[in-house]
């Protein structure tokens, strides 16, 4: 799990997290991004919202999505033997699954970017 948007977070902090995600590429893992929500002793801090995202946050999300797509495909191949499907069919279905996952991640990423732009426009106007 990765939390971003912590109070006092800098662009350098996010870039270091991007470097970490890149280093984790060789390790079978799925990364879960979370944004900071003020709770407990930090309840006086401001929550991190889509409007607070900078381009470097979006770069981090893209790296996380790419990492998860990479390892998701490997994990699906590994678990293919557990799926009740003829072995010859799985390689034919895998490109469609890959396309679907990339499309879903792309749509989510585009929605985040659009929400960020829309909310920023509402705040300015």
Low-confidence stretches: none
Overall domain count: 1
Q: Alpha-carbon distance between the termini?
A: 35 Å
Largest β sheet strand count, sense and barrel closure? 2 strands, parallel
Question: How many strands appear in the DSSP assignment?
Answer: 2
Rounded to the nearest angstrom, the radius of gyration is: 18 Å
Along the chain, the helix and strand elements come as EHEHH
Q: Which of globular, elongated, flat, extended, rod-shaped describes the shape?
A: elongated
Q: Report the average pLDDT across residues.
A: 82
User: What is the topology, as strand order, of the major beta sheet?
Assistant: 1-2
Briefly note the structural class of the backbone: mainly alpha
Task: Note the beta-strand portion.
Answer: under 5%
The quaternary structure here is single chain
Tally of helical runs: 3
Assign a percent range to the helix content.
55-70%
Structure in a nutshell:
By secondary structure, the chain is mainly alpha-helical. Helices cover 58% and strands 5% of the residues.
3D structure, described in words:
This protein has a two-stranded parallel ribbon. With 125 residues, the protein is mainly α. The chain has one domain. It is built from 3 helices and 2 strands; from the N terminus they run βαβαα. The protein has helices at residues 11-23, 55-79, 90-124; strands at 2-4, 33-35. 8% of the residues are buried.
